[in-house]
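Quick one - inputs below.
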Amino acid sequence: MERRKFDVAIIGAGGAGMRAALQLSSGGYNVAVLSKVFPTRSHTVAAQGGITAALGNVTEDNWLWHMYDTVKGSDYLGDQDAIEYLCRMGPQAVYEMEHFGLPFSRLENGKIYQRPFGGQSRNFGGEQATRTCAAADRTGHAMLHTLYQRNIQAKTHFFVEYMAIDLVRDGEGRVLGVVAFDMEKGEPLLIEARATLLATGGAGRIFQASTNAFINTGDGLGMASRSGIPLEDMEFWQFHPTGVQGAGVLISEGVRGEGGYLVNGNGERFMERYAPHAKDLAGRDVVARAIALEIHEGRGCGEARDHVLLKLDHIGREKIMARLPGIREISINFAHVDPLEAPIPVVPTVHYMMGGIPAHYRGQVVVPARTGPEEAVQGLYAIGECACVSVHGANRLGGNSLLDLLVFGRAAADHIVEFLKENPASPPIPADGTDLARSRLARWERRQGSERVADIYRDMQRIMQAHCGVFRKAEVLEQGLVKLEEVRRRLDDAAISDHSKVYNTARIEALELENLMEVAFATIRSALARRESRGAHARDDYPERNDKSWLKHTLVHRDGTIDYKPVRLKPLTVPSFPPKTRSY
Amino acid sequence: MSMIRWRSRRGMLELDILLSRFLETRWESLNEVEKNAYLGLLEYPDAELWDIISGRGAVHGAEKRVVELIRTD
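Output:
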């Protein structure tokens, strides 16, 4: 197998991976970034809304208020040390991007434009705050392009159209690099690295109705899981309240920030009932569940009463054209509705994975060991959506994910620098170090098999949608788990018919499906085990939050066993925000 | 063709949906000039390609014809 050697291997070229890469390359380190697609086509490009940080450009603000909102938004499952770090570093992270050249929209006084988003308050739960920094409705796109250009200047080495297959670990558990697959040549490549950073994004494709792009197949989670690392809080998936019905395409919360609101089949502005204060700008889980309830109780819109309507025509042509042009395009193309004239049909749609690879707030992956619940895996880091730090807890606030990418992208890079100084030599790759990756690749060379990858993929998505969606209960989840086991057995009997080398997309999709399957099992097992409702995890049979028994993080292992670890309620420097009832 | 299918995987679900549908239903019927025009379109960044498909970006000739086909699928 061909080998290359770098100081750091970064898997994934979205906002998190590229922010970390920039920090390391600028510091003189030799950095490899692997990406399945051209870096600026990573899914970060789809983030429309913006970056939340307490700049106070529109209304008075304070990072502690942002911290309070994030802790509350997480339904108290977020780790408060990490949340303090996120919010305290927020303004700096935004100013760094401004300095790198991110073309933010501007207020009349020239300062960075900020818009209000759901779950944002002033003074610990008071009036609506205006905290999300935006570059029109293309903040993610602007961020990716800015970071990519800067990385080119800093001489980051990009491996484009390479899929990471598996981590390389030695007998002591140290991570020594990664085996990747060159799609163009159809050959494996061993990247030796003193530190490996997973930044592979989400895995929303496990669900049938998803806002995620096709590339979001949880590759980092699959790799972590296969190498013996448990996954944290996988029961928590955010359903975005407003996906275009039938297509999954997202209508950003920015629409409601600019004055849009939801109505049911009776023409009622129903969010006034569920969240009298915040109304349509309540947390995403609150709004998603409200919509699901309206539909469930027969107050949906349309002949099938299977959606609600997002109304924005009243906010005026000029404002829509200036502030929400992208939203209008999406609506016309996928809902066949011009929002200047008519409301958009929407349903709750899977959008974001709060769980992921367990990591602390400086990016190191941590796992339970004899010494305690959080022992660092030497040489392995995880950031962005694939990681569970956990700043989003049971529910993420809009605008906090782009901030997460920037803050922890940089924090992980800074920790890696310390780690590299302490570990100047690369340990040797053991003889069997690449066996896991080799056997995965060899498996899809097999020509015998009666099952098709595409059929299994579709069935997995249907099962997850039907059995692990917005509303969950034991019986339905148990049935889902049994069905998922059947589907996995079929995967063992699957083969691909194309065995060509160059851009063999059939092989890539089979490898992606294996990763998704790891994520689907982790999700449904964690959801079944958590007998309470918290944030995005709503159990019909356990409708209340239960802090006495369940104020803890789930850690699910590949063999199905589950551990738990405490939530870090103690921030770094400020007093803790103790759990209380979450209402908006 | 495999490479074209892979490069039609984008960062935005919107483009994934429109482009995969286009490849499935229209690709075979394109002439060489139009196929090359599609390859040219794939070189645009996602947001720009989205602008073009949404009718906000200017394209001409074969690219324009291909965009019309992507839009009307």
